[in-house]
Design brief:
This protein has about 160 residues and is an alpha/beta fold. Helices cover about 25% and strands about 20% of the residues. The strands form two sheets. Strands 2-1-3 form a three-stranded parallel β-sheet, covered by helices on one side. Strands 4-5 form a two-stranded antiparallel sheet. The protein is globular. About 20% of the residues are buried.
Length: about 160
């Protein structure tokens, strides 16, 4: 992991409080022990938004209102322009879950959030979003798995 962030070490490491994310987060603690870390319940997995087109297999309708509000609050907390007085780039690492990441990507790119279920992500994949001072957002990587051996790449 160090080589992926060698040029721009993270300023903060944040992870979901769910077991899988906490486990996935452990190597970051070893690699970046001097960096501030925090766990965040807002990043827990959930059903962020009713998908379009509707899915025959995925229908947690009763969760969209509670999970969606929580996941939207996480998006607003972690995705924003830098402060005007910030002088250099910052890197924030967020370790969370597939549905949450898909929703974040849709929101950041100003794609309808109902499209989140159309995106497929491997477990433990990397997604990289750049947010420029102007507010312009670029998706640099989505579901990247080049750091994983082929036999460890899985999907749910």
């Amino acid at each position: 992991l160090e080589h992926l962030l060698a040029d721009s070490p993270p300023s903060i490491l944040v992870h979901s409080t769910m077991t899988r994310a906490t486990q996935t987060f452990q190597p970051f603690l070893k690699s970046f022990s001097a960096v501030d870390t925090k766990s965040c319940d807002l990043l827990r997995e959930g059903a962020p938004y009713p998908p379009e087109p509707a899915s025959k297999n995925y229908r947690p309708t009763h969760y969209f209102h509670t999970d969606g509000a929580r996941i939207e609050a996480a998006y607003r907390q972690y995705f924003h322009r830098a402060d005007v007085d910030q002088k250099s780039d910052s890197v924030e690492v967020i370790v969370c879950h597939g549905n949450v990441i898909r929703y974040f990507v849709c929101r950041a790119l100003q794609v309808p959030p109902s499209a989140w279920l159309r995106i497929s992500l491997a477990h433990c994949s990397l997604t990289v979003l750049d947010i420029r001072p102007s507010g312009r957002v670029s998706l640099r990587a989505l579901g990247e798995t080049g750091h994983l051996p082929r036999n460890l790449i899985t999907f749910s």
